[in-house]
Amino acid sequence: MERTAILFDYWRSSASYRVRIALNLLSIPIEYRPVNLLTGDHRSAVYLDQNPQGLLPTLEIDGKRLTQSLAIIEYLHATTPGSKLLPDSIDGQYRIRQLSDAIAMEIHPVCNLSVAQRVVDLTGGGDEVRVDWMRHFISKGLGAFERLLGADEGPFCFGNQPTMADCCLIPQLYNAERWGVDTSDFRRIGEAANAANAMNAFVDAHPDAVGAPPAD
């Protein structure tokens, strides 16, 4: 029986974007349920009943309701025959988790829009404070990620096929472009991005392909 994933997401959510890529790589059809962050849908009683943290995404699959993007991707890997989102070896799995966490646990939390807004509120600044905050931490984080990749053979983050690490990298690069971060000096990141963006699984998960929710 074909699995279908019901994904509660927001088009620009990095965490949602990661899961969209993973689902596409595993050829699992996606049924979208947009949750508009700008209108506060994630804080509604209905959504909080699904995800008490009020975060995105939430995935319904196999009769389960799953949250937290990396935990979701690991579940999908473990339950999908033939998945290569994580390597078979313990050392390889460590490497993918190391790279994935460097983005999802280090860059993403401090660059969450709610965090940036809190900084703006506390400093009494405006958009220039938000932009400076985003550029500083994204640039710093991606610089460290580039060094973590080092001279490892590509073209992807880990070898010749995409993994969970690539599912994390590509959404972060989307955010880097959105906030005007110069990534041109990151050779290995650029190589991995080029390899990923040549695949339909990544192209079809892009926010522009998913589309913004209709204006109220």
TrEMBL record:
UniProt-recorded Gene Ontology molecular function terms: glutathione transferase activity; maleylacetoacetate isomerase activity; maleylpyruvate isomerase activity
Keyword annotations: Isomerase, Pyruvate
Domain GST N-terminal residue range list: 3-84
Pfam families linked: GST_C_2, GST_N_3
PANTHER family the record matches: MALEYLACETOACETATE ISOMERASE
Domain GST C-terminal: 89-216
Gene name per UniProt: nagL_2
Similarity section: Belongs to the GST superfamily. Zeta family.
EC number in record: 5.2.1.4
Cellular component per GO, a single term: cytoplasm
PROSITE patterns (UniProt xref): GST_CTER, GST_NTER
One example of a Gene Ontology biological process annotation: glutathione metabolic process
Listed name of the protein: Maleylpyruvate isomerase
